[in-house]
Amino acid sequence: MLNYSFMQNAIFVSVFISILCPCIGIFLVLRRYSMIGDTLSHASLAGITLGLMSNQNPILGAFIFTSLCGALIEFLRSYFKKYTDLILTIVLSLSVGTAITIISSGKLHANADSFMFGSILTVTRFDMIMVLILSAVSVLTLILLYHQMVYIAYDEEAAKVAGVKVRLINYVFSILVASAISVSIRIVGVLVLSSMIALPVATALQLGKGFKHTLIFSIVFSIIDIMLGLFISYYLNVAPGGFTALISVFVLVLILIIKKIQSSISVVRGK
Question: Where are the transmembrane segments (predicted)?
C-alpha cells in the first residue's frame, strides 16, 4: 500500500492536517465558534467550484473564497452582535448558493464530488506544496499570536480593555481557519471537514488538562483519527473523509466510557 505514490502523498498531507486542524479548532471550540468552522467548510465548496470553473487550482480557490467568507463573518458581527447564528446562515446561503449554481450550470471543467467526500487518489504534488506553504504560514502565525489568541479565547472583552487588537486578530484568525480548511479538503472532504476541527479538541477536553496539554492531546487524537481513517478506508474501499469522521466519534465515545469507568471506580474506592 505504501508503495503507491498517491498513498504517500495522502499521508504527507494527513500529517499536516493532523497538526493544523486542532491548532485552529481549540480556539474555535473555546470561543464556542465551532459552527463557524462548519459554515466555512461548506463555504469552501464554492471556492472549489470557482477554481475548477476558471481552470485554477481548487485548493487555492477554496482558500481565497473561504478567507473572504471568514472576513465577512467578522464584518457582520458588528451588525448582528446578538445573532451569530443569523450571520452563519447568511454566509452559508451565499456560499452554498454559489456552489450549487456553478455545479448545476454544467460549466465545471472537472468533477467536484471528490472534494465533497474526500479522496486519497486526487492529492497531487502541487497540492502538497500548497499544503506545506499554508500550514507553515498558519503555524508560524499561531506561534506569534499565541498569547493574544489565548487571551481572546477566554475573554474577548477583557482582551480589548488590555489593549489587544482583537478585531485585527479576529480577521487574521479567519484566514487561519480558511487555511486549515483548504489544506484538509482533498483528504477529508467538505461535508465532514468540521469534524476534524472540533472532535479531536472535544476528545482532549475530556481529559481535564490545561490549555497546552489539551492542545497536545488534540493533535495526538487528530493523528490517530486521520491515520486510522486513511488506512482502514483504503482497505474498505470507502471515502476517507466519512470514515475518519466515524473514527473521530468512536474515539470520543471511547474516552467518555473510560472516563465514566474511572469515575465509578473512584466512587467505589471512596466508599
Answer: 6-30, 59-80, 86-105, 126-148, 168-193, 214-236, 242-261
